[in-house]
Design goal:
Elements: H1 3-19, H2 27-54, E1 57-58, H3 62-67, H4 79-96, E2 108-113, H5 120-132, E3 138-143, H6 151-154, H7 163-167, E4 179-181, E5 186-189, H8 198-202, H9 205-216, E6 221-226, H10 234-240, E7 245-251, H11 257-265, E8 272-278
Parallel strand pairs: 1-4, 2-6, 2-7, 3-5, 3-6, 7-8
Antiparallel strand pairs: 4-5
Helix pairs in contact: 1-2, 4-5
Length: 298
Amino acid sequence: MNTIEKALLKQQANVEKNENTNTEQPQSNSIEKAEQFVNASKRAADESISIKDNQQILNIDLDKLNLRGFVSTNTNRQLINEEYRAIKRKVLDNAFGAISKSLTNSNIIMVTSSRPNEGKTFTAVNLALSIALEQDKTVLLVDADVLKPNVMKTLELPNQHGLMEYLLGEKKDISEIMCRTNVPKLTIIPAGKSHHLSTELLASEKMYEAVEEFANRYPDRVVIVDTPPLLGINETAILANLAGQAIIVTEENKTKLADVQKAVAQLNPEIAVGFVVNKAQSINHDGAGYGYYYAGGK
């Protein structure tokens, strides 16, 4: 018995003695109760350590994100917050409103683009942050761009085991790859390591079961999936069959209409499709920063 335990025993015994001065409670009872108190305290401490070890909380530097032009989680009113409120309202209406009954996995939203470098990860992260501000929703941000993962890099977080480790069977339970963050309603699943069979793994039964788990385990959950660009990437076409909604990110004065048309043709015709125009200078009154537009529907 160490010094701390002895002190706790002595303190509890004294408490019991003082409380029972007039009833002449036997000392053995006091010692027994004190031992129970120590053991319960130790069990609680052990459980607390176990939870912290298994569910490490990733600390996103929210002030730094704010300075970089991302959705702010504080009380300040900013243009980007207002823009994403408009985007998420349509997304949430599709996910939980009347149209949701006609969509499969309506609460799973894939965020993609026709070509690389059009801002899809920036959009996915901002949409997740905005939905995390909702009072009655939680959000799971999944980096499924296994060829060029960018979610953790964008949030300036250390690499973690993720989706690929789970699909490979290296992580047995999906909870092992779910990373809690200091944004209470935001959880992240990183992409994990690269693998030469990424297409086959994303097309596997295990991936289908994972998506079903994402979609149906919690009724208030919204799943944002950052996927590779649609054109020329087999993995994205597979993921498109698992989501109920798709947001295609375009860059003003850069994305070609023909590419957008080809990208839409890659999607499941039953999916609800929306568009975000990224870096749209004409939307902002000061001529700087970003602007967004969502024109969605089935």
